[in-house]
Amino acid sequence: MNILLISVLFLNLWGVEERTGSRHHPVLDFSNVPMPDTNLAYDVLHYDLILNIDIPAETLSAEAAITLDMLEAADSIALHFVGLEVSVVNEGASSRTFERVDSFLVVSLGRTASVGEKITLTISYH
Predict the structure, then answer these.
(1) Among the listed residues 63, 56, 57, 115, the one whose alpha carbon sits nearest the alpha carbon of residue 84
(2) What is the pTM for the complete model shown?
(3) What are 43-66's pLDDT values in tens digits?
(4) DSSP class of residue 114?
(5) Most buried residue among 9, 45, 52, 98 by CB atoms closer than 10 A?
(6) Which residue from 3, 68, 21 is spatially nearest to 41, judged by alpha carbons?
(7) H helices then E strands: how many in the chain?
(8) C-alpha gyration radius of the chain
């Protein structure tokens, strides 16, 4: 029950206002992060989050599995991602290369995904 409450509180803190810098976040500073309007090549179907929050140490490590439905053919995925360090990105059992570009995490798929294809990326970060 406690982890559910902490998860809900954490996700509540991670709202649009914080990511756009229009409101102050108590831990992470998003005030200088550009959030451009973009047309994404995918639709998010599902998020599955595993959070490890150490309150005394003020640390967070997490794994997010994001299931996407491709709306356009693409060989990479751009996700809005700011404030935390990414350790690993996987698609299934395959590791994917990634880079940070402004406020985005750009993940190379190593192939061209087709329209309608379902993709699940697992991102480990801290």
Answers:
(1) 63
(2) 0.68
(3) 999 999 999 999 999 889 999 999
(4) P
(5) 98
(6) 68
(7) 2, 8
(8) 15
Report the amino acid identity of residue 66: I
Distance, in Å, from the CA atom of 24 to the CA atom of 2, rounded to the nearest integer, reads 25
Question: Which tokens sit at 11?
Answer: 């996700």
30-43 pLDDT per residue, tens: 555 555 555 678 99
**Torsion of Cα atoms, 24 then 29 then 30 then 32, to 10°:** 110
Exposure on the CB side of residue 124, measured as CA atoms within 13 A: 8
- How far apart are alpha carbons 104 and 39 in whole angstroms? 13
Q: What angle do CA 73, 75, 79 make, to 5 degrees?
A: 95
Strand partners, 123: 64, 89
Nearest to 53 by CA among 8, 20, 100: 8
Tell me which residue of 109, 10, 24 sits closest to 61, measured CA to CA: 10
Residue in this structure with the two tokens 């994001």, named with its chain if needed:
66
